[in-house]
Amino acid sequence: MVENKVHAGLKYSPPKIRTVLVALDYEPSAQHVAETGYTVASALGASLVLMHVVADNVYYSTPEYSPVMGFTGFSSTDITGQVGMADLKVASQDYLNITKHHLGDDNIQTMVIEGDTPQSIIDAAIAVDAGMVVLGSHNRRGLDRMLMGSTAEDVLRKITIPLLVVPTRGKDNDGAL
Prior knowledge:
Elements: E1 19-23, H1 30-44, E2 47-54, H2 85-103, E3 109-114, H3 117-127, E4 132-137, H4 142-148, H5 151-158, E5 163-167
Parallel strand pairs: 1-2, 1-4, 2-3, 4-5
């Protein structure tokens, strides 16, 4: 039988969140997600890890790709116009470094992972012993949602630690509130 601590007179003691993992994509709204994650980590006295998942190099070569925080893209493409995976990883690390510089904290850690985005976020959370994950939601609808999926929903279904989903609708144009 499970003892009910409320009735036993014991006071709740919340677990300490020591690390916050912020998963970023290349949408301009990622700046808002990064800033929100940094604010949460600072308030909790936790360390911050910024991550990006390199999942599909085709996306980075499409017109839907849009730069964020001064990051303008990739230096080389192959004959089909696609960016090579090695270049994506280097560019992704550069992007995270720009984001880290924007937040102004040299203690922020960064990581670039190649793989399925939702599972890679969960795996990274385990690897860094994150107590919370922060990511953005683009509120896609219809065909766009069917084609692109919902990373936030996929992570939510599988993750076992707190997940903060930052709504980004309307923030993709200039990052303003």
